[in-house]
Amino acid sequence: LQRYLDESQLFTVPDGWKEPAFTKEDNPKGLLEESSFATLFPKYREAYLKECWPLVQKALGDSHIKATLDLIEGSITVCTTKKTFDPYAVVRARDLIKLLARSVPFEQAVRILEDDMACDIIKIGTLVRTRERFVKRRQRLIGPKGSTLKALELLTNCYVMVQGNTVSALGPFNGLKEVRKVVLDTMKNIHPIYNIKTLMIKRELSKDPELRLQSWERFLPNFRHKNLTKRKEPKKKTTKKEYTPFPPQQPESQIDKELATGEFFLRESVKKRKKMEEIKVKQAEALTKRQEERNRAFIPPKEKPVMKKTNKAPSEAKIDIEAIKAKVRKAKTKKLGAPSVNPVPQTTPAYDKKKKNKG
């Protein structure tokens, strides 16, 4: 059963316990053989390494490790000396030059020489097929203005550096384990915010001493990866017919049809007469159809029924006929229109009267 348990449940370290440092008294005779490690660095790191190289030599000199910078070949070499007493110091020096070659600043990389520090270089270049998708997911790990990476660093107590096709992490062992999980999940298209949320809940639960020996599965969120296809289904779906080994039946020929109806055994004159009758029937049908289409234009359309407007006067208001008659008489007495400017006299002239009398 212990094989399936988490590593954190197998043993517990007391709070405040620290491993004693490895001193010269532990190994007074030193090392028998010389060990060395070398790594290459890119051209753009040459100027920075030249600048900080005295600090690197000073940091490694405390552990009696010799470091060599070769600018012609573009390599860094570390090796043990006769004074080196710590056999693991050269391994820490190897990790230091690896981090420096991976664009980690010296102020962070020098922390690897401490006892409770470790490093992990995660290769992410081959985890995603297409380059565009790889760049998107790598940017998702960094987050807007580096906010996602900063949150990951605060929760794991690790320094994380995303550079090219690798992710360099520096910190305690438990933190490195979480960083590797988050990075690999991000490359598998699982958003890092889900893992960050889980780490935040674990951090709060670890503060409670009663929950240390209990399972935390009921508190942790269960995020399911939904892979939804964006392919639209066609409107017309064609269904394949069932496969049959037998060929389809051949269509009947004209002679077969005549044999079935009995026309094949008739005389030529009878056949011609029958054909003419069929043609005449078809012509009569076409003629009646054409006549119906012509007569359709003379059929009058159906008119809508006229709706009679019935304005029923209200029973309460009675019309006063006498008052209306009085208004009409009064209007007749009044002279309508404006008076003329030069009124013409009504009397006729004298010469007109004489003409009338003579006549």
TrEMBL record:
It comes from Salmo trutta (Brown trout). GO terms for molecular function: RNA binding. The keyword rRNA processing applies. Required for 40S ribosome biogenesis. Involved in nucleolar processing of pre-18S ribosomal RNA and ribosome assembly. GO terms for cellular component: small-subunit processome. This is KRR1 small subunit processome component. Its main location: nucleus. One of its GO terms (biological process) is rRNA processing. Part of the small subunit (SSU) processome, composed of more than 70 proteins and the RNA chaperone small nucleolar RNA (snoRNA) U3. Component of the ribosomal small subunit (SSU) processome. The gene is LOC115199152. Transmembrane segments: none annotated.
